[in-house]
Every structure is written in structure tokens, then in C-alpha cells.
Amino acid sequence: MSQDTLDGVDHLKRSIDWKQGLAIALGVPLLILPSLGYLPSYVAAAAIMVWGLSILQTFFQNTAYAELATTFPEASGLPGFVQHVFRTKNYKGKYDKGKLLGGFSAWSYWFAWNPVLSIFAILVGNYLHGLFPALAAHFTEYQLGLLSGLVIFTGLSVVNWFGLRDGAILGYILAAVSLIPLAVLTIAPFATGHVDMANITGNWVPADWAWDAHHILIIFGIFSIALWSTGGWETAAIYAPEYKKPGRDVPKALYTCGVICFFSFVLVEAAVIGVLGVDGVLAEPISPLIPVAHAVFGQAGTTVTIVMLIAAMILIIQTAYLGSARALHSMAEEGNFPKVFGKTNRQGTPFVAMFVTAAFNMALIFTGSIPAILAAAAIGYTCANGISLFAYVKAKTNPAFAKLERPFKAPNGWKWVALAFGLFNVPLCLVGVVYLNSLEIGWTSTWLGFVVLAIFIPIWLYTQREVRSDAEKELRSGAAGSDDVVATQQVDRSTI
């Protein structure tokens, strides 16, 4: 199918600038929260270096993504331009394998971002359980997670119903409420002398660490888990169809967010390990910032920290909610998902995709397991990044894309950088995260990840039948219209 958009799919509206895109993406630094205690459990204080290296990896990757986002300004970030690059123009056969690959990458991306909603809804329930004894007396952490998800998803659906501009305004508010106190909580331990550098230098790697096949696979898996958190700032590019000036706004939003993320991820982990030590972090793997706040600010600071973290979690849920909905919209627009997901309301919000995303995450919350959800999501994100980087290589080498305008260009030879990191993601990090999952929580999360990814194939086959059916109806309608024109002409001649 050669048409750029499908009948029944609506275009997103250009209504934001780079500052508003940045505001929505500013929830990304909070993605460190689920893994603050997870990474040190495998690599001790070297987790600080892993976060830094992972952010540097995303700088290399996002430079390629920024070029793609401005080369294909109508495409929604990773899921959009990958589908566009791999789509075969004027394909005549029944099934376009390139189109399937692009659609699968977009589906992987959706599945990677989507569980952010459920993971942080569960975390909100955990923090509420610890903050309010009255709630703890009547509800379990599991029940509070379900209630938190229902309330947050409903509230965000109402806010974002009125368009991306209002979502950006909410991002500004929540950024002020959460990120500024988070920065204070990160910097304060260093300023007050609560950070003991011996906690970092004295336990840099586990005592039993060895560079054998077992630990190398763990490293690949750790980088896959870390990338799920650090790679999130590429979401600033997913709003390319909604930026007023994509060529200027996309790079500004991306790189500004990247610098913020670098210092945030490195300093947050350094502060936590510096105050608590590796053993102290492992004693509070889900919420290590709470004892840090208590050590620095006392009981009152602990309460403020929990309230701040809840606001921060709503911010990252907002970021993931918008990104996931637009990934589904992009898939419908490219003919890789049923066209009903491309429907938008008067404000340009892809409301069907948004509501389905919320419902799917409510189902995930019922599992009640953050590690299982995160591990499965990391599989999807690793696949999405690998295929997206291969798409960049194709876009740079295929003559069909040679003459396209590129408002932002990566340095010369960047296709080889993209190829190297593509291969790092798939197969190395993919194999690593599967191996890590088998050690940590068995094979449940791995099967969950691959089953959800595999579901895309029958959905895609159904969509292709839907697309062909619509095309046939259009042809018949066009033929009928031509017959009417001929009949009218004959009548006109007969009256002369």
C-alpha cells in the first residue's frame, strides 16, 4: 500500500515547542527508581558507572534518532520512522516483510514503554502504604496499587483528552513538584557530609566477581535493564509530528533532557550508595531514598520525600502514557495496527489508543510483580532499540532516502556507530537480559515478554486484511463514480 496515511486515521496537531516536549520527557530521570537497588545487587557500587555508561550509550543512539526524527517529521519517534524506513514503497504482494519488521519494532517499543504505567502505579501503592498507617490498616500494598492505577489512569485520561499542550502544562507542574526536591535530596547528602566515599570505593565490585561467561552475560543483562531506564529520554523525539518546528525543536529537547538525565542517574545512585553503603541499599531495594531522606532530614524529610516521589511517579506515568498512546496511533497510521487506534478527538488526542493502554496496564497491575513486569518490558525495549538503529543504517545507505531533507545531521560515519550499538542491543543485550531473568525470577517474565511480542503477528495479519478490504472498497467506489460520470456525459450529449 503506497499511500502515506490510511482512511479513518487522523493526523496529530503541531502545537508544542521544544520546551513543552522537554517538560513531558522530564519524567525520565525517575525511571531509575525501580532499579536503584537492583543494579547494586549484581555489580555493587559499580552501578554508578553502569548508569553513566548507559546514558552515554543513549547519547550515541539518540543522535541517530534525532536525525531520523527530523528526516521523517511526520513520524512519531522510534515507532514511526522505523515503520517508514522498512516499508516497501508500492509493494504489490500480499504481505510486505519490511512492513512487518517495522511494525514489530513499533510494537516492541509500545510494550517497552507501556509497563511504566503499571510499575509506577504499584510503587505508588507501596509508598502510600508506608506513608499512611490508616491506609495500611485497611488495604494491602497490592490493593493500593490497583486503586492507585485506577485513579491515576483516569485522571491522566481526563487531562490528556484536551490535547498535548495540557499534558505539557501538567509536566511543568509535576517537574517543579518532583524533580527539584529530587535534586535537593541528591545534592544535600554531599553538602552535609552524609556521603562516605569509602562506601563507594570500598565496595566497588562484588567480592566474587570474575570476568567469566556467567558474569559477562550478567553485564549484558544489566545494561539491558539500565537502558530501559536511561534510554527513555528519546521519548522527546516521539512528538516530532506535534512540534511546531521539528528540525529545531527535536534536537533541543533531546539533548537538554539527556544532560539532565546524565547527572541525575549518576548522582542519585552515588548519593544512595554513599549514604547507605551497598548493604544498606540491598536492605531497602524498592525505596532506598527513604532511609537517605531520614538520615539527612529526619522524619519530616522522610514524609516530604515520599510525597515528592509520588508526584514524580505520576510524572513518569504521564510521560509513558503519552508515548505509548502515540506509538499505537503511529502503527495505525502506517497500516500495522487496526485503524480504530488511529482515531483522535477534536483536540488531536489518540483517545482509543490511550484508553487501551490504560486497560492493558490495569491487567498488568494484577500480576503484582515489579521485577517480572520490568524484565519483560526490557526485552521489548532492547528489540526496539536494535531494530531502530538498523533502520538508521538503512536510511543512510538506501538510495531511496538519499535526497530527503535532513534538518539535523549526525556526524559523518554515524551509521557505523548506529550499527555497532544495534548489534550490542540485538543480540548481545537481548541474550543477556533473558539470562539475567532466568537467574532472578525464572522464565515467567521471559515468556511473558515473548508471548506479548508474538501476539503482534496475528494482529498485523488481521490489519493487512483490513487494509486490503478498505483499498478494494475505495477502488469499487472509484469505479462506480467513474460510471456515474460516463452516464452523465451520455445524458448531456443526448440532450444536445
Automatic annotation (TrEMBL):
Described purpose of this protein according to its UniProt entry: Probable amino-acid or metabolite transport protein.
Highest taxon of source: Bacteria
InterPro entries, A to Z: AA/rel_permease1 (IPR002293), APC_superfamily (IPR050367)
Transmembrane found in the keyword field: yes
Keyword terms of this UniProt record: Cell membrane, Membrane, Transmembrane, Transmembrane helix
Biological source species: Mycobacterium dioxanotrophicus
Similarity field: Belongs to the amino acid-polyamine-organocation (APC) superfamily.
Transmembrane segments: 21-37, 43-60, 100-124, 144-162, 169-193, 213-233, 253-276, 296-322, 348-366, 372-393, 414-435, 441-463
GO cellular component: plasma membrane
Membrane topology, from the record: Multi-pass membrane protein
Protein name: Amino acid permease
One Pfam family linked to the record: AA_permease_2
Gene3D superfamilies documented for this protein: Amino acid/polyamine transporter I
GO molecular function, one term: transmembrane transporter activity
Subcellular locations according to the entry: Cell membrane
